[in-house]
Amino acid sequence: MQLLYYNASVKFILREFKREDFGILWDIDQKCFPPGISYSRLELAAYIRRRGSLTLVAESADARREAAGPAILAFIVAEVDRRGIGHIITIDVVPDARRFGIGSSLLDAAEVGLRAAQCRSVRLETAVDNLGALAFYKRRGYFLETTVSHYYSNGVDALILRKDLLPQAKSR
To answer: Any idea what the CATH number is for the domain that residue 18 is in?
Structure first.
């Protein structure tokens, strides 16, 4: 998959993860989340390699055209479990690339992939104090399912959010 997106000031390409992207993705995760919420190298690698996982990368189209190498702006890791439930493991957008539709495009693409895998719904966790993420997910149709106390290793609670992806079968 390779899709080109245009925005008023940012052109970017969505593509599948390549092994050589890993160091950049881990560095982005460290910059996007505080210690205790960001992933260790081992954790992130395990999520990306999991069976049923999908990792998409948003790359600057300008950097690619100038042959400056990949300028990765953002990424998303999602997975499908055995029960057909999707899970957004992480969505990371570098601070300078936020508010240009990159996160929305990544989330849309991941949801398309999850629907194709027959996921009925998708869940994710976010820290209770991550107000920007909460507003983003609310705009995208996610709703609060539950709260988990002390979810993160730094003691912060998490909100579990959910979005229905497939229409529910009507009972007779």
So the answer is: 3.40.630.30
SS3 at position 92: strand
The answer to whether position 109 is within a domain reads: yes
C-alpha distances in angstroms, 152 versus 27, 35, 47, 121, 127?
A: 19, 10, 16, 23, 8
Tell me the pLDDT tens digit for each residue of 105-126.
999 999 999 999 999 999 999 9
CA distance 15 to 18: 9
* Both tokens assigned to 149: 């106390």
Distances (CA, A) of 168 to 43, 88, 164, 165: 34, 21, 8, 9
Taking the model in full, what pTM does it have? Answer: 0.87
144-138-131-86 Cα dihedral, nearest 10 degrees:
60
* CA 74 distance to own-chain centroid: 9
Would you say residue 150 lies in a domain? Answer: no
